[in-house]
Amino acid sequence: MNAARKLTRFAERARFLKKYYFTSQNGIIGIPGSFCTMVQQPQRTHGLVKLGVIGAVTGTAVGAGYAYYKINEARENIALEGTQLETTLLKYKPPVTPSRKIASPVDATGLKLTLFQYQTCPFCCKVDPVLRKEIGWSSYKKVPILLTKVEGGYQPLNDSTMIVSLLASYLHDTSHKIEELANYYPSVAMHDENGNFKYEIINKYFLMFNKQLPKDRSMNEITEERNWRKWADEVFVHTLSPNVYRTLDESYRTFNWFSEVGQWKEYFPTWEQMLIVNVGATAMWLIGKRLKKRHRLKDDVRQSLYDEANYWLRAIKARGTTFMGGSKPDLSDLAVYGVLKSIEGCDAFQDLLTHTNIGNWYNAVKEQVETHSGSVNLSR
Ligand SMILES: N[C@@H](CCC(=O)N[C@@H](CS)C(=O)NCC(=O)O)C(=O)O
Ligand SMILES: *[C@@H]1O[C@H](CO)[C@@H](O)[C@H](O)[C@H]1NC(C)=O
């Protein structure tokens, strides 16, 4: 099982998931990369085992060796429970060439940021609107990662939600240093509800207001914003994969779109690109079915997508404002927008526009994001 998991993860990260990244010279933004499978939990590989994709690897010898290794690893992980990772600075910038640089004329933050991302990854797209953002140098292996230039080096920031919370906290009170704020968001060792070991930034949805609550916002609004951001990460995002990889045909179209947006033609030889699209589309179509079960989507997965979108829209309607954040998008608007932005070129997105009213809200956020890129006052 574990060998299988390793192989799957390897395949995921391997060449066919080409990454690119971005630098913002004096402020905000980044852009395209490629695609994100959005299958993060290890349990997903059990399906693949059944599919016999890697049956041969699970020989008994390997199995026994692995079992021993795993038992030890599990013991060590239990000993780690509750401990925090040190936040380390990089002395030098990793030698990667940005695929795009953005210098905003209206930036007043003085921030120098480099975003490592996949263009069509929902988590990455969440960071995109606030700012935007390759990773052999990092022991944290997911994207997005944001590199921020600080005194004496570069501070890597790990998780999309934490990145957004940290930057919003910084913009709220720029007297704080980024590296100080990073210490307020520690990665803590823990075991999740399935007993899997992981590091979690427990307070990642919280902004550090430093005793000065924003004057124009009620406690209730702040709490709501947090809950909706959580909903975007824990509920809404899970409706995507089963939808964009719903049928083999759809899965192919989705991959062709990734290939376009990620400019795979420029980055891979034709044969490799074909391999990626074919293997990727097929694998994700299969994995999509597992994810549908795991996240208990309806038989008609589109319906689940529409239902969640409508749940979101009803809440905005109840407020009587254009955005969840009022007359300007707040961080929850940006989170939901980011998630949807990652599937903009998919059939599922078009269907969502025809079957729900989300287009008005989506375009309104889009306009704000596009006209405010580089602005300090993005989330007010
Ligand atoms: N909680 C993380 C999730 C990020 C994530 O799962 N990123 C995917 C791409 S969409 C990834 O890098 N996966 C590689 C892996 O899991 O090893 C966040 O919000 O940033
Ligand atoms: C990011 O993750 C790496 C590896 O898990 C860790 O060493 C580093 O301290 C983390 N960064 C922050 C800011 O927590």
Automatic annotation (TrEMBL):
The chain crosses the membrane at residues 48-69. PANTHER family: MICROSOMAL PROSTAGLANDIN E SYNTHASE-2, PROSTAGLANDIN E SYNTHASE 2. It comes from Temnothorax longispinosus. The keyword Transmembrane helix applies. This is Prostaglandin E synthase 2. The keyword Protein biosynthesis does not apply. InterPro entries: Glutathione-S-Trfase_C_sf, Glutathione_S-Trfase, PGES2, PGES2_C, Thioredoxin-like_sf. GO terms for cellular component: mitochondrion.
